Amino acid sequence: MSNGCVYLVGAGPGDPGLLTLRGKEVLGRADLVVYDHLVSPRLLDYAPLKAEQIYVGKQASAHTLSQDKINQLLIDRARAGAKVVRLKGGDPFVFGRGSEEALALVEAGIAFEVVPGITAGTAAPAYAGIPVTDRNFTSSFTMITGHEAEDKADSSINWQSLAASNSTLAFYMGVRNLPRICANLTKHGLAPQTPAALIRWGTTTRQEVLVGSVASLPQLAKEADFRSPALLLIGKVVALREKLKWFERRPLFARRIVVTRARNQASELSRRLEQLGAEVIELPTIRIEPLEDPTALQQAIGQLASFDWIIFTSTNAVDAFFGALEKAGLDARALVANRICVIGPATAGRLRQFGIRPDVQPKKFTTADVVESLASRQQLTGRRVLCPRADIAPKDLPEALTAGGATVKEIAAYHTVPDNTNAQDVIELLGQGQIHWVTFTSSSTVKNFFAVVKPEALAAGVRLASIGPATSATLKQFGFTPAVQAEQHTINGLIEAIISRESPAKA
User: Fold this and answer.
1) What per-residue confidence (pLDDT) applies to 151?
2) What is the pLDDT of residues 134-153, one digit of tens each?
3) Domains contained in the chain, CATH given
4) Beta strand pairing call for 5-10 and 309-312
5) Active site residues
C-alpha cells in the first residue's frame, strides 16, 4: 500500500470561522483527524462522517499522548495509506510544535503539507479591540513564549532588548509566569505604567479581557483568578481597547444558547446566533431519516392529479417529497394540476429551488391562518388536500381542514427519531447554571428535548424561546411558559425575540 499524507493544519485561535479555505478543503478529504485541546469542535463537522477522530489534547498538567506518541501515530497511519489531518490550534509553526512533527515525518519519509492558520497573537487582540501595531504607538510586534519566562541561565529571551524595543509584546501561555514576565521587563527598563492586557479564550464567545498595567496586572489577575488559556499583550496599543472593542458589544455576547433543531437544520440558526456573539450548543433532539416503508408516499405521487392542493409545512417535507418525485422519474411538471401552499419563508425558498413558487403563503404560521388563506382562494368544501409531513406531526392542521369541508390525505414523508448528541453536556451545564437560553422551533423539538432532559433540570435562570403558538402550547404541556415567543414564526423572528428580551439586561 502506498503511503498517505499528513496535513499540518492551523485551526485558528478558537472562532471556527477563522479556519482557512485550504484547511476546510483538506478536512473534507480526511481519513483521520488528530486534533488538539484548543481546536473548536465545530471544525470536526467539516470532516467526512466516515473519518476517524482522535483527540490528543494537551493542557498544562495533562497530556493525552506524549509528543513522541503523536509523531508515531501520524507516521503509522500515513504509512497505512491514510490522509491524516493534524489539526492544531492557531498556526502549526507558531509555538505549536508543528516543526517537530514535520521533522519526524521527513525522517520517516512521509509526505506532508503545512496549512498555516491564524495565530492567537494577532487574532485575540483584534477581537479584544487592540491593534497590535498602530503608527501613533508602535510599528513593530513581537511574539514570545511565556513558558521561557523563568529567569534562568539558558533562557533565550533578551529581556533588555524587549524592554527597550517599544514593540507590542505578545506572550503566549504566559499566565502562570505573569509576575516573573512583568518583573523581568520592568527590571530591564520598561515603564511600570505601560498598558497591559490578558485575553482569555480570545475570538470565542467565552472571551474575557483584563486590562491594567505591567505593574498592576499580576495582582489584578490573581484577584480575578484569571487562568489559561490566555495571551498576555503589553504595549501602548492596549489603550485603544475602550474605543475599538467590538466583539463584546454584540447583542448576545457571552450568552450560552442551546439549539434543539434537527442537525441538518441547526446550522443556519447556530450561525446567526454566533454572529450575534452567542456560544451555541447544538442538542439536535431529532434526526431526519428516510421512511422505512415509503409505499404511501409513492402512491400519493402516483395520484397527484387527484389533489387540488398540496401543503408543505417544512423544508424537510419539500426535500422528502421531491426526492420521492425524482425516484418516480418525475419532476416539477408533475404538479401542473396542483395548487401549492407553504408555511414559512424557508419552506417557500426551498420550494423555489425546485422551480415552483407557492400559490399561497400565509403571513402567520398558525393553523387558523393556513385554513383562512386557503379558503380565501378557493372554497374548501369538496377540495382534496395532500399534506406530506413528519410522521409525528401534530394533527391540528388536517383536523381543521377537514372541519372546513376538505378531504385531507395526510402522509408521512419522512421519519423523525430522537438524537441525544451532546445531551449529557447540556444536562451538566444546566446543573451548573451555565445555560442562558434554550430554543425550540417545533413541537417535536420540545417533546424530544424533555425525553432526554428532565423538566426539573431547567433552573430558574434558564429562559425558553419558542418559535410560535403550537410550540408554546407543547411547552405548556410540560409545565413551562416560554420567556419569548416569536412574533414572526421564523428563525429571524425567534432571534429578534431573544435580542429584544436581552437588550434591557445588556443596557
Assistant:
1) 46
2) 999 999 999 999 876 444 55
3) 5-118 (3.40.1010.10), 122-245 (3.30.950.10), 256-284+421-506 (3.40.50.10090), 293-416 (3.40.50.10090)
4) unpaired
5) 36, 58
